[in-house]
Specification:
Arc Repressor Mutant, subunit A, Rossmann fold, 10 helices
Amino acid sequence: MINVLLVDDHQVVRSGLRMMLETNDKLSVVEELGSAEEALIYLENHDRPDLILTDLNMTEMDGIMLVKILKNLYPEIKIAILSMIEDNIKVAEAFRVGADGYLSKATDYKELEFGVFQIANGKAYLTTSIGLNFVKSYKVDVTVDIHKGSMQQIYEISDRELAVLELIAEGFTNAEIADKIFLSKRTVEGLRQHLIEKTNSKNTAELVRFAFQNYLLQ
């Protein structure tokens, strides 16, 4: 039997989760609590559960802080975030402070149940939809970085020229660019012209369009 403690500041959500989880006779919800503070008090006075499922956004203390505290106090307890929030930064932060899993409230019951068993049995688990978002974000970022570096080499664009190009795309004048990167106006004018020539562009507008189309700007 896997004993689960639910921590969520919405009673309806807690009750619904309890009903779903307890349809499996191998899962038992030992208690449902409305705040991180209540969870800390509960653990001081009761037997420790096998798994704690906590919401992310709660008043006073959020789920990230609760995970961090509990992992210091009770490292043997498995803890997972269960939230509607699927932001990559929040997910990464949760694992960084010690979470054993991150489950989405939007997932279907079968995956939620599977995730609970995986985490309770000592395996890290991330809801499939969130994991795919991580992969997609990683692939996009890496692809853009690779293309950007390659295009810089192909067109022999220096880092200084790239910095000027980025400011040109933001609409700054030669004088404003010179002030921002501590160059003379004449030097900036020369760098702008070099960029136009290296990319075989007719004018600044065409230069900026070329840069976006070829991953020099994003």
